Amino acid sequence: MAASERSKSYASPEAVLSHPTLTRTERIEILRQWEYDAAEQEVATEEGMPGGNGSMLQRVTIALASLIGPDAVLASAPTKQRPTSRRDESDE
């Protein structure tokens, strides 16, 4: 199952972190998908579309930082607002 499909199976970033059978790599993949989705939602909200949840992006960022470190989170998934590249931290 793709990370985008698996990410819908969890209620929160914290649930992803505490899930007993997910590997570190799976947690990172799912949280990266959540990060991308939350960032895109923020862009939509800035462009006048309803439904933004800025606290979700913050929660996902905190969860990712606990897995990969804050420096790696800064090099996050590219979006319209942040077209950056990131290193592949799943091998760490």
Provide a descriptive summary of the structure in words:
The protein is mainly alpha-helical and 92 residues long. It contains 5 helices and no strands. Helix 3 packs antiparallel against helix 4. It is globular. The two termini are 22 Å apart. The C terminus is likely disordered.
What can be said about this structure in brief?
The chain is mostly helical and 92 residues long. Helix content is 58%, strand content 0%.
Task: Tell me the number of strands.
Answer: 0
Give the N-terminus to C-terminus distance in angstroms.
22 Å
- Computed CA radius of gyration, to the nearest angstrom: 13 Å
| Low-pLDDT sequence parts | 83-92
The main β sheet shows up as: none
* Helix-strand category: mainly alpha
What coarse outline follows from CA principal-axis ratios?
globular
Proportion of residues in helical segments: 55-70%
Mean pLDDT: 76
- Share of residues in strands: under 5%
Question: What's the SSE blueprint?
Answer:
Blueprint (H helix, E strand, L loop, with lengths): L2 H4 L6 H6 L5 H23 L7 H15 L1 H5 L18
Helix pairs in contact: 3-4
Supply the key terms.
single chain; 92 residues; mainly alpha; 5 helices; globular; disordered C terminus
